[in-house]
Amino acid sequence: MRDKSSRYNHNAAMSFNRDQWKHIQKCYNFSERKMQILKLLFEGLENDKIAKMLKIRYNTVKAHFGNIYQRVGVQNKVQLVIQLFTIVQVYNKSKKS
Hints:
It is a single chain. The chain contains five helices and no strands. The protein is an all-alpha fold. The longest helix has 20 residues, at 77-96. The chain is elongated, with a radius of gyration of 14 Å.
């Protein structure tokens, strides 16, 4: 049987470099904890695994995501990922000009 986690791209967090992550943090005024949660999401972890890794409660992770969604103006993780990639693309274009 195939491991459920094998379907995730565990290197997804590396798709943003340090400057891009800093830009995301600055755009939305995210705390360090919210940035940790976002990076773990981009590594393919689900809420329960994020909670375990950060040694916080599952409901705390959900609350952080609710706050993140509100700040970014999205309703779910798919929209969140798309929006963050869009923000980074705009940032990259502004750096080139």
